[in-house]
Amino acid sequence: MAISVDVKIGDGVLIRHRDLVNLYGCTIGEGTRIGTFVEIQKNSYIGARCKISSHSFICEGVTIEDEVFVGHGVMFTNDLFPRATNFDGSAQGEADWSVVPTIIRRRASIGSNATILAGIIIGTEALIGAGAVVTADVPDYAIVVGVPARQIGDIRRTGSAQRTGEFAALQHLSENA
Questions:
Q1: Is the peptide bond before 148 cis (omega within 30 degrees of 0)?
Q2: Rg value, the chain, Cα
């Protein structure tokens, strides 16, 4: 694992165990923290003051705006129709598919082990429950859980789980979705 020379790293970035991450061709904003066993691929952008937890995979074409939380083991995708080979059986290369961009808006939070499909926009301050599979855009301030993820609330009405002590209730909703 390595950090390639083409990575743009902002001031104050903290990378845990630099020898146990894989970063190449990406941009990491100032003050962001990156955990162990994280891979961030080329043409990905991570904003300022984000937290990218261990074992997460951020593929090419993902944009994460400022102050976003990405939990442990979060997986992003960038291809709507993934295949190993072309119809003639030849191995696919970069010329055989197009990256489908994904955007995570400012201050969103993505729970551990969530999967975010290609082409999704997760709105400002949205909250994605642990283990959710996000298959459609998520509105600003929405709380989504389940497989496939569905909206169960609005952070403005429920309040921030951290500020109001409702984390246990949100976790219970996520487990029973």
A1: yes
A2: 17
Distance separating alpha carbons of residues 76 and 154, to the nearest angstrom = 23
Lowest average pLDDT, out of 31-35, 45-49, 153-157, goes to 153-157
Give residue 44's identity as a one-letter amino acid code: S
pLDDT of res. 166: 44
How is residue 150 written in tokens?
A: 């569905």
Phi and psi angles of residue 41, each rounded to the nearest 5 degrees, phi first? -90, 170
Question: Is residue 19 pLDDT above 50, yes or no?
Answer: yes
Mean of all residue pLDDT scores within the chain = 90
CA angle 113, 76, 149 (to 5 degrees): 60
Strand-pairing partners, residue 155, are none
Q: Which helix (H) or strand (E) holds 175?
A: helix 167-175
135: which residues sit within 8 A by CB, 6+ positions away? 117, 120, 148, 149
The domains located in the chain, with CATH, are: 8-80+98-175 (2.160.10.10)
Q: Is the dihedral of CA 58, 105, 35, 135 positive or negative?
A: negative
**Which tokens hold the place of 140?**
């600003």
Backbone φ and ψ of 50, nearest 5° = -90, 165
Structure tokens at 27: 């941009």
